[in-house]
Each structure stands twice: as structure tokens, then as C-alpha cells.
Amino acid sequence: MSKIDPIYVGKDATGKMLEYVAAHGLKRFALVADTNTYAALGQHVEQALKAQGYEVHSVVLEGEHIHTDEHQIVQVLIRAPLGPCTFIAVGSGTITDITRFCSHRSGRQFIGMPTAPSVDGFTSIGAPIILAGVKTTIVCQPPMAVFADIDTLCNAPQRLVAAGFGDMIGKITSLADWNLGRLLWDEPYDTDIAARSQVAIDSVMSRADAIGQRTEEGVRALMDALIESGLCMLDFGATRPASGAEHHISHYWEMVRLWEGRESMLHGAQVGYALTLVARQYERVRAIDRAELMNRLEAATLPDRATEIANIRAGYREMSPKILIEQAPFLDLTEADYDNLKHKIADNWDEIQSVAETVPEPSVIIDALRKAGGPADYEALGLDADEVTNGLHNGHYLRNRFTVAKLSHVIDLPMD
Hints:
There is one protein chain. The protein has 416 residues and is an alpha/beta fold. It contains 22 helices and 8 strands. It folds into 2 domains: 7-155, Rossmann fold (3-Layer(aba) Sandwich), CATH 3.40.50; 162-410, Dehydroquinate synthase-like - alpha domain (Dehydroquinate synthase-like, alpha domain, Up-down Bundle), CATH 1.20.1090.10. Helix 6 (158-169) packs across helix 10 (216-236), helix 6 (158-169) runs parallel beside helix 12 and helix 14 (305-316) packs across helix 15 (320-326). The mean pLDDT is 95.
């Protein structure tokens, strides 16, 4: 069970927040926002708190593109007051993660006030932080409570709403990859949490049109699903219920763009498009019968360690030492280990095929993304063909997870 109480999505979220802080004796606050979210809701929250006699220190981060990185973290830590206070995150994913990290590392708690249904991290325990150019999820803390104003959410820019939809349906392949990890890499798994996540996915897939039109019913369903996804991660204690190959590809695109001084796209928009690529891999898996599988496994040989290291160094540049550590369980496989992995694939092929059947055809996902108003091809997203290829071939190195990308490497299934 989650420890976040309450989680409110509805009218007059600020009023509900005021009732909460009064009931809990909170009197001093550090409000974190960016210039857009401060205008959308933050200033209203600040004024409402001050009208009740509370002390409020607002930290408004400036700039067109705010990243969850060392620079912004230091900005908040320097500008937030010393001593006892409660942080309030007024914003979407980036502001929430910056606040989550800063509040946790300074020994204080925070309240979440989302301004757009754009990500699933509002109720999670992890903060994806870009440290020295590498996107790393740091275990921090969930908010004390969440107050999401439905009118603010419905008035959020369509691209943010569509990004939330992309992030949420990305869980389709997150769950499939999590199942592969359970079967083939002995990764921890929770059937109940997987079932909860599937219900949340289904609720937004069935409302793509309403979400695209930003109706109150559609936006509320999306926000509820994103919150549930965050709770699934919180209750499981890791990101596996909500992050698979589609997220690894997205993270890779973002990291490379940061290294090159280019702006990355919205996280959820990237995930939604990456989902179409990963769904294509599952489509290819479904097309392999047992006879073909056995032929592929017979031909499969342990990847050359030096070649894999060279690939990682080429793909991750100066960040490669950290990636090599993450990939050590794969790089250190012996011939016996690899043979055991191939036997696991063969023994579990029927179940692997059943997992692949849970992933819709890419065309179904593309149609849903377009209905929700999000990009469904690389050009609309702002990528070029080389970036797509590099993400497909390098994303799987980012985490010690056994996803469909790893399976594709073992059975020599093309990724393009």
C-alpha cells in the first residue's frame, strides 16, 4: 500500500491543499516551479498560502528548457530556506523530480501539485537525474500528498497531455519486458502490481480520443492512470513495472542530445514513439515458430566481450565507464552461462510467445498516439533516421535488464 495520503484529483485542489497543511500543522514552505508552472498555478498557490499567514519561499526556475540535472538541483538547494519547511512541487515531471531529490537529500518532505498529466512520476519513489551526462534513477521519496487541479490539467498544453498518454501506454512493453526479465534473467516480479498496471494502461488506451480532446473525463482518466503507475513503482520499490526497452531508447536519445548541446524532446513523446519500435520487435518475435527458434539458438554464440565493450564506448563516449559497470552481468557471461540462457529461452518459448501476444500491433499504437495528439513517427518527434537507429542499438546497454532488445541480440533478430 502507498503512504501518500491524500491523492486528490478534482476541483479546487489548492483549497484541499490548504485544508491538508492546516490539519498537519505545516507553516513554512519552499515552493518550486518554473516560469510556466508558476504562472499556471504556482502564483495562485503562493498567494493562497500567504493569505493564511504561512511563510512561503518561492523558487522559480528560469529558462525555456529545465532539465533535472546538477545545475537545477543546486539552484533549488541554494534558494530554498534553511531549517524546517515543507517543499511544494508545482509543475510536471521535471519540477517534481527536482523537488523530490532536494527535499529528500535535505531531510524534508514535499507535497506534489501537478500542472499537467505528462508523466507517471508524480507518486513514485525514484527521481531520474542527469548526473555527469548519464540519466540515473535515484531512489528518494514519494510526496506526502498530491493535489491535482483538474481545471489546470485540462488547460495544460496539448503536447504535454499527449506526452502523458505516450508515457502511460509505454507501459505496454514495460510489462512485457518485465515478464521476459522474470523468465530469463531471474528479475523480481509481482503479479498483482503487473495486473494493476495493465488496468491503468487499458483505461487510457480506451480513451485516446477523449484525451486528445482534453475532455475532463479523458484527462482525469489519464491522470488517475499516471498516478497509479507511480504507485506501482512505489509499492514495488523499483521502476520495472513502468520502464522497459521503450524507456531505455528514450533515455539514450535524451542523453546524446544533452552531450551534443541539443534540446531533447518531451520524455513521454519519446517513449510513445519508442513504443512503436519495441512493439515491432515483439511482432517479429511472434512470427518465429519453435523450429526457427531452435535454428537461431543453435547458431547463437556468446557475444565477443571486446566487441561489446567497443560498442558501448562508441555509443556512450565519455559515459561508457558507468555503462560498462551496469552491463557487467552481461559482459561477464561465460560460455556455460550463455548456454543456460539459451536453454531458458527454448524452455520458455511458449510463454515468451504469450508475452509477445500482449503487445498490440504497431499500427494500433500509432493510431492511438495520433488520436491523443502526439507524434507517431520520428520526423514528427524531431529525430532523424540515424538517431532512431542508434537508440535501437544502444538503448539496451543502459540498464541491467533483460528486455526484448536483449532477446533480439541472442536470437539474431534484426532491430531497425
